[in-house]
Amino acid sequence: MSAFTLYEERATAPGKPRRHCFAPCNDVAVTTPPPAPLLLVLGEEELLATRAVAAAVDAARAADPGADVREYEAAALTPGEVAEMLSPSLFGGRRVLVVRSGQDARKDLVTALLAYAKNPDPEVNLIVAHLGGGKGKVFADGLRAAGAEVVPAARLKGDRDRIAFVRDEFRRSGGRCDEAAASALLAAVGNDLREIAAACSQLLADTDGKITEAVVARYYRGRAEVSGFTVADAAMIGDVPGALEALRWALHTGVDPVPIADALADGVRTVARVAAAGRGNPYSLANTLGMPAWKIQRAQERSRGWTQEALVDAMRAAAECNAAVKGGAEDRGYALEQAVLAVAAARQAGMTGVPTRRGGVSGDGGRQVGASRQSGGDR
Predict the structure, then answer these.
(1) CATH numeric code, 228-369
(2) Through-space distance between the first and last CA atoms of the chain, rounded to whole angstroms
(3) Residue 191: which of 243, 259, 245, 239 has the closest Cα?
(4) Any idea what the Cα angle at residue 300 is, between residues 297 and 304, rounded to 5°?
(5) Is-contact 77 109, C-beta < 8 A?
(6) d(Cα 200, Cα 38) in Å, to the nearest integer?
(7) I want to staple 135 with a disulfide (CB 3.0 to 4.6 A). Which of 103, 169, 326, 347 is the partner?
(8) Pick from 4, 28, 290: nearest CA to 155
């Protein structure tokens, strides 16, 4: 089970108790059950770990509002303090011990906590946050072997995980978000999970909860444009004014030219790969091409009007732009503008059969390779 799925079940946002569903009852008080006596939050994604710990503490306090909650950094915690906290209390009541950075625990502390874990007190909740990996592995493995409930908080590595996280953020708060909208939001705010979560929360607060790509584009217009993908999208459909406007805005706001050049090259390559695969169902092609279905569908839409020869021209222009931008061209902005013009011109030539300055096109649409171009486009 993935991190974002399990944490949704076990950990909600800080300050909100974990969700529980109970049948209506008129004569019996309904209480929230406490978390497991042993809880191991395992992984290096800070937001997921923070949420998991907060949800467990909230659940303990919901079960016993007077619970004694104490938090420690493992490196500063001593076995004596642990013994005091975990020993039976004369006054009763629930106790919660949160040990953060468990991978930094010293050997004597690990020994004491693992000995306790063999026979934990049902009125005590021991919550250990651990980054995982090789450091402190004996501690994590020992807690798991003792029966600790494990909540994964691993860092989300790929686009699919992050897209799923975004959709989960909206779903768990009663909203809806499709894959294209989630991808657009990631392009606008980046890959930091805290910023992503904050953006989701803001969109939910300011909309009706039905999040589409158009909603994201309208709300984050300025930020989404500077990602470079809007430049590429506009160039691929021949919208030269839109592509140049987005490009100039990106450069004006301080975006490095390199990711813009990369986005343009990626846009051309994606359309070329999808076009070569034919007009199949995006979901059927997803595994073959190694792309999400929404990206394939978008590339299919952008491939209209492109010929194979035109795509070769566009890929060459994008490659030359990359070489110029990454090779230290004197005017990288000019190189990007020329690449945008070249990509749009290649598409237009493919649609009309009219030769471009970069080479001729025969009467049957075949490519006639012309003179070599200068790096970064025609001067």
Answers:
(1) 1.20.272.10
(2) 55
(3) 259
(4) 150
(5) yes
(6) 32
(7) 103
(8) 4
Instruction: Give residue-wise pLDDT tens across range 17-35.
Output: 333 333 333 333 445 577 8
State the Cα–Cα distance between residues 144 and 74, nearest whole angstrom. Answer: 18
Task: Please state, in angstroms and rounded to a whole number, the distance separating the CA atoms of residues 55 and 32.
Answer: 12
Domain boundaries, the chain: 3-152, 163-222, 228-369
Q: What is the pTM of this model?
A: 0.56
CATH annotation of 163-222: 1.10.8.60
- On the question of pLDDT at 13 being above 50, the answer is no
Q: Name the band, by pLDDT with cuts 50, 70 and 90, for residue 211.
A: very high
The CA distance from 256 to 273, in Å, is 27
Q: What is the 3-state secondary structure (H, E, C) of 199-233?
A: HHHHHHHHCCCEECHHHHHHHCHHHHHCCCHHHHH
Query: For the structural domain made of 3-152, what CATH number should be given?
Result: 3.40.50.300
pLDDT in tens, 62-82: 989 989 999 999 999 999 888
Whose tokens are 């997921």? That residue is 48
User: What average pLDDT score do residues 242-266 get?
Assistant: 85
